[in-house]
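Why does residue order matter? Because the sequence determines the fold. Keep that principle in mind as you read this record.
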Amino acid sequence: NTHPYVGIAMVVYLAGLQSMPKDYYDAAQMAGAKQGQQFLSSTLPLLMPSITIIMVITIIGGLKLYEVIIALTAGGP
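Structure:
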């Protein structure tokens, strides 16, 4: 069974990746950065808003499950 927010996360990450300007990658390539360095210096910082949104949505979804777990187990194992 997959996580219910996987599809939403994929759409948000895809939108974030598609909205990135190519200028950052061109500048990093001209500076001699390898692919890993380009990811850490360009991609990851530009994806932080998307990552933050998905983290908040996932945490809220996880907190919603707390009631169900307590109701089913009565707080026990």
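The helical segments are 6-18, 23-30, 35-73.
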